[in-house]
Amino acid sequence: MCGRFAQSKTEGSLIEQYGITGAVPTSPLPASWNIAPTRDIYIVREDQQSHARELATVSWGLIGSWQKDLASARASQSHAINARSESVFEKPTFRDAVRKRRCLVPADGYYEWATALGPYRPKQPFYISSPDGHSLSFAGIWNEWVWPKGQVIQSVAIITCDSVGQLETIHSRMPIILPKDRWEFWLDPAAQDADHVRKLMEYSDLYEGLSVHAVSTTVNSVAHDGPELIRPITLGEPQTLF
């Protein structure tokens, strides 16, 4: 799963990495090393009219179009921060969005907490990132919820899959990280063939090139934020990395 991540890149850095030629937010988001569900985050998507690639700000946790009021819509978000790749085409909350409203979620890296199934102390946090400093590109889907009283909330879910490689020793799930050569089709709202979309989410080297290290349990509290959260720590024996 993915329940906490970091995003500290400036709008300019994201515009360059993702080739943004369309709209960008008028109010940049602050850097954060401890983004939690329901927070506003950046996504990259394709405008359905101009087909330009744009950078947008949305709320993390997908809101279903059937929610009747603002309180229910907000409450539902924490239950839909992730969508499982195995069932995303069947679940009512996600199935329309995965066909028509796909996006990328840029992240410096994300946190995962060890489960009792691996060799590490349960709930030990790890930070997973790209060693080259570029943002990871999570496969995402977005939606727009409109309340009859006029409130409009755009929201997003991150798609996850079974962990692969050494990440299996930490947690059973991980976000799908899309390589650059898959972005164009993934972002195309007209590309709605389910089999093709499924294939974009399937590849064996998902773990390839990722950097993984243990971090302090300080990250457990959303009250804490700052680059010190991703600083590596040394685990005692036998809790050593890979």
Structure write-up:
With 242 residues, this protein is of the alpha+beta class. It has a single domain, classed as hypothetical protein yedk fold (Alpha-Beta Complex). It has 5 helices and 12 strands. Strands 3, 4, 5, 6, 9, 10 and 11 form a 7-stranded mixed sheet that branches. A 5-stranded antiparallel sheet has the order 2-1-7-8-12, with no helix packed on it. A hairpin with a 6-residue loop joins strand 3 and strand 4. The chain is globular.
Salient structural properties:
alpha+beta, hypothetical protein yedk fold, seven-stranded mixed sheet, five-stranded antiparallel sheet, 5 helices, globular, disordered C terminus
CATH homologous superfamily assignment: SOS response associated peptidase-like
Low-pLDDT windows of residues: 238-242
State the share of residues found in helices, binned by percent.
10-25%
- Structural class designation: alpha+beta
Q: Helical region count? A: 5
- Helix/strand order, N-terminal first: EHEEEHEHEEEEEEHHE
Q: Secondary structure elements and their pairing?
A:
Elements: E1 5-7, H1 11-18, E2 32-35, E3 40-46, E4 53-60, H2 70-77, E5 82-84, H3 95-100, E6 102-107, E7 109-113, E8 125-129, E9 136-146, E10 152-162, E11 173-175, H4 183-187, H5 194-200, E12 211-214
Parallel strand pairs: 4-10, 5-10
Antiparallel strand pairs: 1-2, 1-7, 3-4, 6-9, 7-8, 8-12, 9-10, 10-11
